[in-house]
Amino acid sequence: MEIYSNKEPIQILWDIMKGLYTQHKIPIYKETMHEEENDIPDSYILLRSQTSDSTDTFGDGVSLIRNADCDIILVSKGYAEDTTDLHNINKIKIKNHLKAQEIPYTDFNLGYDNGLKSTQHTFTIGVKYIG
Q: What three-state secondary structure class fits 96?
């Protein structure tokens, strides 16, 4: 993963993912989603930066390069039981988008959340940045 100087992990995530909104119009939110309940999109991406953040390289006792784990969370209304539903279509779009940029990721199917009435899938990527 490329090292981005003078950028916080959330901005790095945005730079990686903004093309999905431009190309496919999948709504993307940074850290939280602020919509009223009746305005929540059927499927959207939530960027969550620095779910963990650790020192990668020291220089004279100061952390010069940091390594942050960041999440790209796909949230879609409903059960997502069918491969042709919006959630699974958007999941493939995210995978293809990350692969096209040669960004390694780990993904987790979080499944259906009855409280939120939605299905979630998370892609975790590591970013290096100067801290």
A: helix
pLDDT, one tens digit per residue, over 2-51 is: 666 678 889 989 999 999 888 889 999 998 777 777 788 999 999 998 77
Average pLDDT over residues 62-71: 81
Dist CA 65 CA 76 (whole Å): 35
Q: Is 47 exposed, middle or buried (0-12, 13-18, 19+ CB in 10 A)?
A: buried
H-helix segments, 1-131 = 9-24, 86-100
Locate 53 and state its tokens: 């953040």
- Could you give phi then psi for residue 117, rounded to 5 degrees? 55, 40
